[in-house]
Write a structure and sequence with these properties.
2 domains, Peroxidase, domain 2, 325 residues, two-stranded antiparallel sheet
């Protein structure tokens, strides 16, 4: 079974190489031999393991970071750049976290091999490692990215939690990702959380009806109302996977919750209701190969590139000095 899963993923990687002209020189094992005998991916993984042992929620944080980075200028670490009007300052990115993990990994690889490993690759490697530590598959990431030179808040235009399924499909299609890719990538919510403010309308005044969203399980509405009181000054968080036994595990439980009308965000619940995606949700909820398929979708996400010039940053938070003058 494991050998077959590895073969399927290897074939998927080869297919991505054939059909994605913007991918450039990305390949699995890109850094092998480029830093002497040093195991670059192993160095990054050790940093992630150390952080994960302190805080298991870093998996959700890194998944979100990679998605927010790749969906803007491609996977070029532009989200890491500091600046008054950088991507970090855009509203959807104000709650992105995990930057210290990337900094620590960058420091570790620079000590072994200065000026060779990009911050963009570190994001993708670190995310894969966190997914693996949380019960997902250890999918072979492709590397060889360059770090972007531009980071502007005005470029951040991410699909939001109130998007309809068709709007979300359109947004993903613009990035070359299919509706099935989208459903799998939203599976990252299996370890995520959401602030009450993002779904509170579903609990009290859905679409100005004065009533809760009728597609949400009434028992869940009652539970969430206790966590998210109306007009509360505290914006609490709740797990996107309401199965408390697997809320920190990368698995297909999220999809099973959607089928039980226990989705938190509107876009999540509509995946299981809309004719464009409900069959995919049902198939994933019953499947035994979620880890493999999720890994394939993450590889496709990681292949997004803008084609703009790039560099290997010395610091993930700033372009190299010669560029910034």
């Amino acid at each position: 079974m494991a050998r077959m899963a590895a073969l399927v993923l290897a074939l998927a990687l080869a297919l991505v190489s054939l059909v994605s002209p913007c991918q450039g020189a990305l390949q699995a094992g890109f850094y092998k031999g480029k830093c002497g005998k040093a195991d670059v991916e192993g160095v990054v993984r050790r940093v992630v393991v150390a952080q994960f042992n302190k805080d298991r929620t870093i998996t959700a944080a890194l998944l979100r970071m990679q998605f927010h980075d790749c969906f803007v200028n491609g996977c070029d670490a532009s989200i890491l750049l500091d600046g008054k009007n950088s991507e970090k300052t855009a509203s959807p990115n104000l709650s992105v976290r995990g930057y210290e993990i990337i900094d620590a990994a960058k420091t570790a690889v620079e000590a072994l091999c200065p000026g060779v490993i990009s911050c963009a690759d570190i994001i993708v490697m670190a995310t894969r490692d966190a997914v693996s530590l949380s019960g997902g598959g250890q999918y072979p990431v492709q590397t060889g990215r360059k770090d972007g030179l531009v980071s502007l808040a005005s470029n951040v235009n991410l699909p939001g939690p109130s998007f309809s399924v068709s709007q979300a499909i359109s947004a993903f299609a613009q990035k070359g990702l299919s509706a099935t890719d989208m459903v799998f990538l939203l599976g990252g919510h299996t370890v995520g959380v959401a602030h009450c403010s993002f779904f509170q309308d579903r609990l009290y005044n859905f679409q100005n009806t004065g009533k809760p969203d009728p597609t949400m399980d009434p028992a869940l509405v009652r539970t969430l109302r206790s966590r998210c009181p109306e007009k509360s000054k505290v914006d609490n968080t709740v797990n996107l996977d309401q199965n408390q036994l697997s809320a920190l595990t990368v698995d297909n439980s999220y999809y099973k919750q959607l089928q039980a009308h226990r989705g938190i965000l509107q876009i999540d619940q509509e995946l299981a209701l809309d004719r464009l995606t409900n069959a995919t949700v049902s198939k994933i909820a019953k499947s035994l190969d979620f880890s493999t398929k999720f890994g394939e979708a993450m590889v496709k996400l990681g292949a997004l590139q803008s084609g703009s010039p790039g560099e290997i940053r010395k610091s993930c938070r700033a372009v190299n000095p010669s560029r910034s003058k």
